[in-house]
Amino acid sequence: MKRKFIYFINPISGTKGKAVLLEKIQQATNAKHIPFEIVPTNVEGDYNFLQEKIKKEQITDVIVCGGDGTVNQIAKVLQKTAVNIGIIPMGSGNGLAFAAHIPKEYSKALDLIFKGKSMEIDALYINDAFSCMLCGLGFDAQVAHDFAQQKKRGLATYVKQTAKNFLKAQPYPFEISLSGNSFHTEAFFISIANSNQFGNHFTIAPLASLNDGLLDIVVVNKMHKARMIWSVLKQIKYGQLKSFEHTKYQREGIHYFQTKALTIHNPTLAPLHIDGDPANTASKFEIRIIEKAFRLIVA
Predict the structure, then answer these.
(1) Dist CA 139 CA 137 (whole Å)
(2) Which residue in 181, 173, 249, 248 sits closest to 218, CA to CA?
């Protein structure tokens, strides 16, 4: 089947200029004799027009030049379609791209897209909100909210906001329920991941897979902050899954388990992020995996 591309470029994602990328896209895609169109992303994140456009123009590949937030918005619209999604990473974290081993260098990412190797990727819903790889409650979500307010983006800004929030971070009360069991805990944050990436090669859920039909849950419970640093670093390098057992988990600093669905009660309205972007929180979340949600071009 002859391929036809549409490139979406986020004019504000990341920290690099877009002129070099535009020139590279035009030269490389023309050299492959692939018809294409370049379109700017929109502030509203509304891509409902894509389904009709794809059908009418027989587009085979939608390429996102941006970060996880833009990928989220487009992947949501393209759920359960045969269209491939490609990524040229240009965001602040690029978690999904790194989890799929997509190189950050423009030319290498384009070469991967031209090869066209794709696979079906899982996603998740947190209440009625779509997430293509990761959502979280608590400390990391507060960082996402504060980061979104900064004029200057990039890793340095994210690290600064993380350090600032760490100094004042307090645990939140949660009740987590699944498989007929539940437990109460005070936690600094909870990550619900389909990807092993937090972004910037930070692997909070090291055993997570993009297409295993399971969510990886990481609960960082109340503890001394010095211990928390050590526990998170240990989780990143050595994190091991454990079966969900109420009595055992009450003694663990970090809970790490897998499930297809869970419920989280959030009585103090801990902040929420979805794929690294701030989102509206709620007092209760029903979270579930969406198996084979969309097609992603991977390494």
Answers:
(1) 7
(2) 249
> Would you say residue 246 has pLDDT above 60?
no
For residue 137, the tally of other CB atoms under 10 A from its CB is 27
Q: Please list the alpha-helical segments (H only) found in 83-242.
A: 95-99, 106-115, 139-148, 155-168, 225-238
AA letter at 53: K
CB atoms inside a 10 Å sphere around CB 172: 23
Distance CA 120, CA 138 (A): 30
pLDDT above 80: residue 13: no
Is 296 domain-assigned? no
Task: Determine the 3-state secondary structure of 292 from DSSP.
Answer: strand
- Of 98, 123, 148, the one marking the end of a domain is 123
For residue 210, CA distances in Å to 50, 119, 174, 281 come to 24, 10, 26, 25
Kindly state whether residues 149 and 192 are assigned to the same domain.
Answer: yes
Task: Please tell me the predicted confidence (pLDDT) of residue 15.
Answer: 47
Cβ-Cβ contacts under 8 Å for 94 (sequence gap 6 or more) = 67, 68, 87, 104, 199, 200
| pLDDT of the residue at 53 | 95
d(CA 130, CA 75): 9
Domain count of the fold of the chain = 2
What are the structure tokens assigned to 224, written together? 């001394």
